[in-house]
Amino acid sequence: MRDMEEKFPRGLWVRLIIYVAVGHLFAAFIYLLFTLGAQNQ
User: Fold this and answer.
1) Which three-class secondary structure string do you get for 11-37?
2) Whole-model pTM?
3) Which residue has the higher pLDDT, 29 or 3?
4) Of 12, 36, 16, 34, nearest to 24 (Cα)?
C-alpha cells in the first residue's frame, strides 16, 4: 500500500476524484435532458 501512495502524488488523487465527480454530474445532466425531452414529445 505504501508503494502505491509513493507512486501517485496527493494532487493527482484530488484531480482524479474531481474529474470523476464532474464527469458523473455532466452525464447525469445529459441523461436528465434526454429524459425530459422524451417526456415532452
Assistant:
1) HHHHHHHHHHHHHHHHHHHHHHHHHHH
2) 0.60
3) 29
4) 16
